[in-house]
Each structure stands twice: as C-alpha cells, then as structure tokens.
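Morning, I've got a small favour to ask if you have a moment. I've been staring at a protein lately and its backbone has me curious. You're getting the sequence in one-letter code plus the fold written as tokens. I've dropped the whole record in just underneath, so have a look:
=====
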Amino acid sequence: MATLLHRLGLASVRHRLLVTIAWLVALVAVGVGAGTLAGTTANTFSIPGQESTTALSLMEERFGEATAGATVQVVFQAPDGQKITDPANAAEVAETVAALGKLPGVVNASNPLDPQAPTVSQDQVAAYSSVTYPVQPSEVTDAEREAITAAVDQARAGGLTVEARGEALSNPADIGGISELLGVVVALIVLALTYGSLVAAGMNLLTAIAGVGIGAAGIVTLTGFMDLQSTTPILAVMLGLAVGIDYALFIVTRFRHELRRGLTVEASAAMAVGTAGAAVVTAGLTVVIALAGLSIVGIPFLSEMGVAAAGTIVIAVLVAITLVPAILGWIGKRALPRKLRDVPLTEATPEGRGFVKGWARLVTEQRWLSLIVAVALLGVIAIPFFSMKTTLAQRAAEGSTQAYAQEIMDARFGPGVSSPLLILVDGPNSAAHATEVQKQVAALPDVALALPATPNQAGSAALITIIPSSGPEDQKTVDLVHAIRDQVDDADGAQVYVTGSTAISIDVSQKLNDALPVYLALVVGLAFVLLVLVFRSLMVPVVGVLGFLLTIGAAFGATVAVFQWGWAADAVNAGSTGPILSLAPIIIVGILFGLAMDYQVFLVSRMHEAHAHGAAPKDAIVTGFRQAAPVVLAAATIMFAVFAAFVPEGNDTIKPIAFALAVGIAFDAFIVRMIAVPAALALLGRAAWWLPSWLRWLPELDVEGAALERKPPVIEPATGKEEPVPASA
C-alpha cells in the first residue's frame, strides 16, 4: 500500500494543475446539484416492521393522509382569577382561532370552545386549539412557521397568555452559525501555531473545507431522491471537517519533515503520501467501517446517517492523498516557516530536548501512578453513564414558547394530554371490538381518559385516543404501552395496534437500546482485530480497546451530567435537559471508535517502528511518543474545537452528540493516549509487542510506510521513473 500511495502522491504533485481543476469541477458540480435537486429532510423517526409504524401506515390508508399531517397546539390561558370561558376571553379565543385557520398552509384550526368537541381544562382556565397542516413537520416552510408565530404574538395583545407547541415549529438543523465559524477560526489558529506558517495553515484548512463541501453538497443533493434525517447533513459536515483538517495535518507535517531532511518538493510530497498517507487511509477506513457498521442495527434512518457520514470520510481521505500533495506542489518550501527553510532537521531539533520527550519519560517512569490516576479520573467521570435514560421525544428549549405551552398543558390538562396514545382496531369487526377495547383499556393503571372509538367512513377501522396520566418520558407510559399490547387481544376480524408519536418513540428507543450492546461488541471486536494486524501484537490491542472503553464511558458520563442532570447546562447553552436522544449513544460510539483508533494508530505505530528498529521497550515508547504526540495533540485540539463549536447554537438533536464527541476526543487524546497508553505499555515491557507463534501468519500492515524509509525510491526529474536505491546506498 505504501508504494502505491507513494506513486499516487508523486502523480498528484506532478500533475497538480489537473488534480486541482478536477477537484474544483467536482465541488462546483455537486454545488449545482445541491442547489437544483435538493429536497426536504425529515424530523421524525420510525422503524419499518414495528407495531407502531405499521399501525401508522394503516391509519393513513383507513382514515386518510390528514392523520399523518403536522400539527401545532396553540394554548390559551386566562389571567389570574378569570376563566377562559368568560365572554370577553372566549371572544378573544374565537378571533384568534379564526385568524389561525386562514394562515398559509393551514387546513384546519379547531375551536377549543366548540360544545361538540371542547378542549378546555377542568378548571376552565386554559384551552387549546389544534392547528393542522396537510404535510409532514419537515415540509412546513419557514414562511408558514413565521406566520403562525406572528399570529401567536399578536394574540397576546388581548391580555391572554398564548403559547404554541408542536414539531411543525421546529426548524431543521442549520449549518454555518457564528459558533461553527468560531470553531473554524480556532482550527486555523492551532494550525498556524503548529506549522509556524500561515500559508500551510490556510492550505490545510481550505483543502478540508473543499472536501467537506463536496460531501455535504452531495448529501443535500440526495435529499431530492430519498428521505434523509435533518441531522444527517450537519453530522456529516461536523465529522468531515474535523477529520479533513486532521488528515491533511498528518500529510503536511510529514511533508515538512521530508523537506527538512533535504528531499525535493516532489519527493517530499510523494514520501508524505506514501508514509503518513498510509496511516491516513488506514485510519479513514476504520472510521468508514465504524459508520457503515451502523447498518447492522437494522434501522433505516440510522443506516442512512452512517453511510452518508462515511461517504464524507471517504472524500476527506481522497482529498488528503491527492489534493493535498497537489497543493503542496504549488506552495513548496513556503509550507515551512521562513527561518527553517534552509535549516537541516538535525540542527533545529537536537535529540534529547523538549517538553514532549520529558513528559513521555515522566509517564513511563511513574507508570503505575500515571495509569492509576488516568483510569480513576475517567472512571469517576463515567459514573453518571449508569443512570443514562434515552427518549425520542424532542424537548423544547427553556424559555421558548414551546416550553411555556408544555408547562400550561401539563399543569392544566395533565402530562399525558400533549402526547396521547392511539389504538387502531383494524378489520371488518372493528366497530364492535373497539367498544370492548375502549372499556378494557380505560380500566388499566395510568389511563387518565379513554375516548370513545371513532370509526372510519368505510367501517373497516376504528381509532381510540388514550390520554395517559404520565408524560411521554415517564416509565409509567412505557409500561402502559406494553400493558395494552400484552393484555388487549385481537378478535376475529379485528386486529389491535398501539401507535402515535409516543408509542413510536418508545419502540424506536427500545430498538436502539437493544442494538447498542451488539454494536459496541462489534466495534470493540473490530478494534482488536485491526490493532492485531497493524501492530502484530496481542497486548497493544488490549490496551487500545480498554482505552476506548474508558473514553466511551467518560464521554457518556459527562454528557449525562450536563444534558440529563443539568450540571453546567447553561455554560454550554444546552437549551433543555432530560433523557438523552435515543439515537445519540450509538452514533457517538461509532464516531468515537473511529477517531480513537486514529490516534492509537498514529501514536503507537511510531513506538512500534522504533521497537522494530531495535530500541528497548521503554526507549521505543519515548521515541515514538516524541515523534507522534505533538501532531496527535494538535489534531485533537482542532477536532475538539470543531465539535465543540456545534454545541452552543446547534439544534437539540445535534447538541448532545457534538458535546459527547468534543469531550470524548479530549479524554481520549489528552488522558488515554497521552497518559494511560504509554504508562500501560511501559508496564508491559517486551510483552507489549508479543505475538503468539500461531498468529504469525497474519499479514503485516505497514501503516507508517517503513518499507519506503528503508528502501526509498529514486525519482528522476525528467521522466518521473522510480528506481529503488541500491542496497549499498
């Protein structure tokens, strides 16, 4: 692989104009595609084959599309000492409802004071109107959202408290806020400090942006042909930008190293791709496998997110091994600080000095203390993980109209009113059986109200609305759904289904929670196999996998403490606190696995190389650490900045994911890889590199291009023909 990549790097730098133009054409092409073919994204989650999803499809067939349309609940509350049914307040409500019914896109706005179907609280202080749209929540336009928000604001002028809630009010995930730009600026600063050259820093950032632009635009284009979740593009941008910057950093760092060894610009670029590029391809492949592996869970929307993000990683790798060397050919020695362009490497970096080498010696000498402190620290941070709860229910940000509306609904109507369960009785005998079902369900615990069954026009189905006494995130509601399914039987010619947004949330959450241990076992097993192949060792993979588990535990622990318990929630602008979004844990595991293995490969491969060249185990750790740690730390700092930038202004879906990835990267790079791993390897000594004889048939993966260093090719400027250097050289 190293030889092939060396040739690719050489071809890219020699044909840099063609390579640069090709990538620019690709960027323009997908940009045009995104602008002309883009469709809408979805904010709802469902799993084909689940009872709740099957019932939802049947409801659409039996009762029409209106059952699946987006709704907004506009909540009215009378001033203290008054009732919403007082003549003056009732007139205000009627006027507002009439205005709501005329808004763009609205097909109906119910009158909460209608004697035939009132929606008034028992104390007559509050009421709510259901505003219905004929489309899915994601298809409600910004103009329609602004119109209903303006109508609610105007309704408050009459003295009533008027608030609104509903999925139709939620904006899809946006990209390009101030905090995201700040993350890019931080990345540029770190790159400039690392390189000591603004030219190199700017080139690194621009190539990463080009790659993520192509990936994101490609995903946006796909929305015109298939339904993707609204979080998919922003997840791909967040991940693609982070790894794109890091992969280019590894290539450029090696290019600068080769320049200062005295190689020409072309030879340096080719060697950088052949050596660091091999590690980039291996690391990128690891992330791709982890993300594409989300498909094994059997959840379509999760598979789509994983494959889309994996596609962005593939583009980032291709950019790193083709466009980056091409641009390096343009800037040449300007990639180095001016004062180092003519300074040989050995003069500028005398052996045996530097903070990084001193840190490595400290950790390896105080290995027991270092390992215990690192493990204990991450173990304490991981404690909240054991109380993690998950849900698909979208929580409104504190202080928003959605949050105020929810408070009024919970206080005046009960926590179950805003998230009812729907029971579909389907079949020729549905009407008769639905009456029995309604009576049976009404007698179950935690049922506040079981409304009479509503048959469809054809008499082939009936719908029963159940109001739980508890909210959608309460375990009692989960138990109620299972109780209905376990205790209410089908009848001849009538099948009973439990559905509704709350039931769908419960089903999807259960599926995701069941899939997480399986997926975690898969990625841990993959990590072990990969590291055995890379390092031809059993103990190094064990150390790497245990370090990854520490990272995952600490990342989840910190996320639960902030987003579920509310610790320091205001400091990160968490918006709302409560159970973690169900899909977050499995996505976090997949991404952090890939990135943790990136750092393990880049760091330990240098130690492995030094040991293979005859260094004693402890000296090999120090040597490899000194060579790789500065680049890994710079890469982790950049990745932390990019992920953290999506927390303050991200939507409620992306915030906990971005936070977990940011802190997970910090824990993994600064504690696991900088302290725990070198300390553990120092404790193991020569046993760290031991491979049983019965496994020595395994192929050797040269992820650092050591073969190229042992026998570098000679590049003839005139023809570009490569010939190996004679052994005597």
